[in-house]
Write a structure and sequence with these properties.
Layout lengths: L3 E3 L5 E3 L21 E12 L6 H5 L12 E13 L3 E5 L6 H8 L6 E10 L2 E2 L2 H7 E4 L11 H12 L6 H14 L20 H13 L5 E5 L7 H16 L3 E6 L4 H4 L4 E6 L2 E7 L3 H7 L10 H6 L16
Parallel strand pairs: 5-10, 5-11, 8-9, 9-10
Antiparallel strand pairs: 1-2, 3-4, 3-6, 6-7, 11-12
The structure holds adenosine-5'-triphosphate and magnesium ion.
């Protein structure tokens, strides 16, 4: 029996990712048009003093415009291209620029400036209007109402976000589907909580944030460290879910610190960032052969994303590397 099935434009996709009982899920396929995200020669600088309020600057006996902050390059000449049906993972150590990249794509960057380059969604610049219509962004920090239960949160968002022609029954069905998809059934009636109000666990809260965005069935799904705070089994299952969503003709872009090797295998494309520069940008399965050919083989029994994500030698060839799609 063949282990592959043809899904999208003749691409061979492993059928082991599909579970027959879940194929009927609302979220299995995205029926909208195909999307393509392109980042060309992106250069992004942050002003490390930008977040200091003006009155604190005055206490230094200087007027706000007299204080020059230190400019730091958060992203350096980045190129990438990804389209519907693919899952791209941005990996790298802490502070390498993962969140900055995702925030720039979704027009949520604060305290920095794009000094060059452009971001195109289906060939059009990523204006806030285009982003609002096409991209669901799950941020690194959860921003939820602490006093609502998981189900109330989703019902509330469904009322705000789903088209007005949806009936109450359709909305409830979608909420149930998302709860099942993200394995939130056991805590559906528990309040969400936050640092001060005890509620669901940190991992469950993370999944509620993802559920909120999945509700409106987006074409592009961007997630900043969706697996942080999850145990390895839940993290693996979550990435399998994301992989299924990508197979259903969506574009999934996520950032991860150093994923386990079984999670790494689920990615189609990988961008490895080191101090804001892409040191590898291409198919996930080609990453180890690429570094091996450059004279940096991954030691035996070592997780490639652990090894390459924290290696000092990467800084040497980060500047000259370009995208090689
Ligand atoms: N608005 C800002 N003001 C000051 N510095 C910033 C700002 N945004 C980003 N930076 C700096 O840019 C670098 C990249 O930050 P970013 O949050 O993108 O890292 P990250 O890869 O997401 O890290 P982590 O894995 O810890 O979340 C960091 O050194 C950070 O301090
Ligand atoms: Mg981050």
């Amino acid at each position: 029996m063949s282990h592959y099935c043809i899904i999208h434009k003749g691409e061979l996709i492993p059928d082991c990712l599909f579970f027959s009982e879940e194929d009927s899920s609302l979220y299995f396929t995205y029926s909208g048009e195909c999307t393509e995200l392109e980042v060309n020669n992106l250069q992004y600088e942050v002003d490390t003093a930008a977040q200091i309020p003006w009155y604190e600057r005055l206490s230094e006996f200087k007027l706000p415009w007299e204080i020059k902050g230190n400019k730091q390059t958060a992203i350096n000449k980045l190129n990438l291209r990804v389209r519907s049906g693919q899952m791209l993972a941005v990996i790298g150590s802490s502070g390498c620029g993962k969140t900055s990249l995702l925030d720039i794509i979704t027009c949520r960057d604060e305290g920095g400036t794009m000094t060059s380059g452009q971001i195109l969604i289906n060939g059009k610049p990523n204006t806030p209007r285009v982003v609002r219509k096409t991209i669901a962004h799950v941020r690194q920090d959860d921003r939820l109402l602490p006093h609502l239960t998981v189900r109330e949160t989703l019902v509330f968002v469904a009322k705000l976000r789903l088209p007005t022609h949806f009936t109450k029954a359709q909305r409830d069905k979608r909420v149930d589907d998302v709860i099942a998809e993200l394995r939130l059934r056991q805590c559906a009636n528990t309040r969400v909580g936050n640092d001060y109000v005890r509620g669901v666990s940190g991992g469950e809260r993370r999944r509620v944030s993802i559920a909120v965005q999945l509700l409106w069935n987006p074409g592009i799904l961007i997630l900043d460290e969706p697996t942080s705070g999850l145990d390895s089994f839940t993290a693996h299952n979550l990435v399998i879910t994301l992989s299924r969503l990508a197979r259903g003709n969506r574009l999934v872009l996520l950032s991860v610190h150093q994923p386990r090797s079984d999670i790494f295998q689920l990615f189609d494309l990988v961008v490895l960032l080191s101090s804001g520069s892409a040191v590898y940008c291409g198919a996930a399965r080609d990453m180890v052969p690429y570094f091996t050919a450059l004279g940096h083989p991954c030691p035996r029994y070592c997780n490639p994303s652990d090894f390459y994500g924290t290696c000092n030698f990467l800084d040497h060839f980060s500047s000259g590397m370009t995208n090689f799609y």
